[in-house]
Hints:
184 residues, alpha/beta, nine-stranded mixed beta sheet
Amino acid sequence: MLRILITGQPGVGKTTLIRRLMDHARSMGIDVYGFITTEVRESGSRIGFKIIDVNNGRESWLAHVNLFKGGPMVGKYNVNLRAMELVGIPAIKAANQGSLLVVDEIGKMELMHGDFLKALEEVVDRVHFLGTIYMAYRFNRTVVSFVSGHGFRVIELTMANRDRVLNDLVRELVKGLNRGNDHA
């Protein structure tokens, strides 16, 4: 099974890479589940993040500078834990045997929900997994245990290597998905 996590600085193109690989998998007839997070800007300033189910398009605010006050915060953003219950966790649990699960991202905001990693644990062994992960994950023992325990390969994306990484991962995706589905 495919087990890849992409890390890198904000703005380097992690979500764009994931979207391209997701589109490629779909073009191969592979079912794709999971979620992506997108930043939302107003007048040039980032005001928050939305979480979007890649299968059905359902979305919710994951974090916002002005909404959801009184809850947990990451930097200047108020985190909406309910978004993980409404969109994130159902998107993960919907993944079926041999499908591609996309998780963008395993990050501080998502990890604030106690059931997020539990949902990943429930499905990880039956799916191909492609995701992004925040750079400081190495300081979170639970996340390190999840990553190493399931044999993930973590690739750091940079401006210099992103085109090569895309090409390498397209080849790996084709090989991994074809091999994985031969056994399904």
